[in-house]
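debug: dumping io for the single-chain case to check the tokenizer round-trip. Nothing else runs in this session.
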Amino acid sequence: MSQLRPIRENERTLIHYLLEQLNMKREDYPFNELVDEYEGGKMGSISLGGDPNAYDGDLIQVDYTDLTKRPS
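debug: decoded output
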């Protein structure tokens, strides 16, 4: 079962940055203030629309390295 939560500031910042990489203005791609976490947050992905099953394709794809402190 999905559960909506408020979008986090770091998520908003990342979305705005990615839109800038597409030469899009924030106003060109409005998104909800409430997001839906896929797999209850385990996956680390969110849906910006009201229906997580209404996926229509990627606007942009990026690779990143998640820096975490590794046990010694």
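debug: round-trip ok. The first helix runs from residue 9 to 21.
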